[in-house]
Amino acid sequence: MKPRLIWLKLSSLILFTCFFYAAPALAWGCKGHQTVALIAEHHLTPEARQYLESLLKENPIDPQLKRYCGNFNGSLFADSATWPDDIRSTMNNGPWHYIDIPRGASRGPLAGYCGDSGCVTQAIADQLAILKDTHADPRKRADALRYIIHFIGDLHMPLHAITNNDEGGNCVPVQYFRCVPQEHNHSFNPNLHSLWDSAILERDMEGADPREYSDFLEKSFSRDAGAWQNAGIHVDDWIWESYDLAQSVVYGKLRPKDPIEKPVPVRTCSDDNNVGQRMLNKHFAVGEKYQEAAAHVIQKRMAQAGIRLAMVLNDAVKATQSTN
Predict the structure, then answer these.
(1) How far is it, in rounded angstroms, from Cα 59 to Cα 141?
(2) What is the 3 state secondary structure string of the chain?
(3) CA-CA-CA-CA torsion sign (69, 71, 74, 79)
(4) Partners of residue 118 on adjacent β-strands
(5) Which phi-psi region, left, alpha or beta, contains residue 47 (left: φ > 0; alpha: ψ -120 to 50)?
């Protein structure tokens, strides 16, 4: 192959890779949510798996719906895991996917951080109530299951539990290895949120597909699964775990340091004295050292999300069957 042609192909690959990180912010990205669902699937009781698979099969996703991640063949749970992001805009329920706890807040009740439009903890409680209601519309119950699969994954992503007046890191431009942040319509990519959504995970997966990666995570954390299960279901505690990791690793290992800001309402990166531009001027850049620390956190959080999702679903099906 001619040298010029080789360079053109490499340049295209680099551009594609950098623009890949400019995709919409979806916690854990496509492969991440699918991986969490596959881990959970392995830990469902036979009764729960049969019951939930029947519910999903009898009330399928609209085949006309445009799927951002495409369809996932061979697992109704992994296929369902990305559906809430497909309908996020049309349903206008974006706040259901996260909870904005200000950076620097003290641990306590979460209700005060759940806005008028809802938050992930409230959404999980609401959707669990629908799933357990055998008198509810079966289609609504199937959708509730899809939401739960997705939201348990969401809340284990550290930046879905914190904000520093920066839209959960979306307004923090960061150079990632050689990918330099670019501005488009007052948004910046790569940014801190997109790195934790997909970029760091994709690099850690090293080309593995969700099934291969879920097997890797299960083996890596097999000794911890029992302790996570024995600890029981405590959604608020799981949120605070994410918050603490965001403090200590996501922001804590970022260089130069990102100071804690006094909380103010922020809807775009132009708010709070143009927070996006202010953060761009700090010239945040991360490489292999940050990647290694972040990947370890992501691996553990995804493994925990899968185990805990199975716990939540096993408990929901048990409660449903006990009322029949």
Answers:
(1) 9
(2) CCHHHHHHHHHHHHHHHHHHCCCCCCCCHHHHHHHHHHHHHHCCCHHHHHHHHHHHHHCCCCCCCCCCCCCCCCCHHHHHHCHHHHCHHHHCCHHHHCCCCECCCCCCCCHHHCECCECHHHHHHHHHHHHHCCCCCHHHHHHHHHHHHHHHHHHCCHHHCCECCCCCCCCCEEEECCECCEEECCEEECEHHHHHHHHHHHHHHCCCCHHHHHHHHHHHCHHHHHHHHHCCCCHHHHHHHHHHHHHHHHHCCCCCCCCCCCCCCCCCCCHHHHHHHHHHCCCEEECHHHHHHHHHHHHHHHHHHHHHHHHHHHHHHHHHHHCC
(3) positive
(4) 115
(5) alpha
* 3-state secondary structure (DSSP) of residue 43: coil
| Half-sphere exposure of residue 319: CA atoms within 13 angstroms, side-chain side | 12
- Residue pLDDT, tens place only, 56-94: 999 999 999 999 999 999 999 999 999 999 999 899 999
pLDDT in tens, 148-179: 999 999 999 999 999 999 999 999 999 999 99
Q: Which residues pair with 188 in a beta bridge?
A: 183
Kindly give the pairing relationship between strand 174-176 and strand 187-189: unpaired
Beta partners for residue 175, in sequence order: 285
pTM over 0.90: yes
DSSP state of 38: H
Rg (CA), the chain: 20
